[in-house]
Amino acid sequence: MKGIIYTGGELTDLVTLARLPTYLQAFLRAQNGVVAYFGGLHIRGCVAAPGWHALAQVWQGERALWRTYAELRKSDIPFGQDCVGNQFLLRGDAVLLLDTETGELADLDVDFKHFLFGAEKFPMDALGLEPLRSFQQAGGVLQPGQLLSLYPPLCIASNAITPPVAKPVPVVSRLTWLADFYRQIKDLPDGQAVKLVPL
Question: Which pTM does this prediction carry?
Answer without folding.
Answer: 0.91
